[in-house]
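Our preliminary data section would be incomplete without showing what the modeling component actually yields. Below, a chain of 139 amino acids is followed by its predicted structure, encoded as tokens that our downstream tools consume directly.
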Amino acid sequence: MSTLLDKSVENSQVANLLIDQYKCYAASVHCAYYSVFQRSVHILRYQFGMTERDIDLDAAFGGTSKDSHKKTIAVVYDKIDKANERQKAVLFRREMGELKGKRTKADYSDEVIDKALSVAARDQSQRLQTLLNNVFPLS
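Predicted structure:
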């Protein structure tokens, strides 16, 4: 298993702990999002052989952090679509965009993040993980 996949699993587990045991709702949203994002990067790197430069993960390669996430989501959408899974591709793009919005709100807004939003983000993350696993099973 790659370190990215280990981090993805860890973030998923921590998101649950932060909700259920620690009531740290904003942090749990952050972890829920990064669990899916790291899984997505793992898929691109290890199942498609893409480099960091290929998926523009680092600002040093000409992008910004906002651009890199948007581009990564778009590349994963394209890979799902090319696997003849158009409906799942559209669902991935929509759900990941929504989850990214929740993460941005949790990380940068001055609003209180409540349990309902945190649980919604966790559930969305779990649905996205299942979708990715169905299209790109771990070898």
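The mean pLDDT is 92. Residues 27 and 64 are 23 Å apart (CA to CA). Preliminary results of this kind motivate Aim 1 of the renewal.
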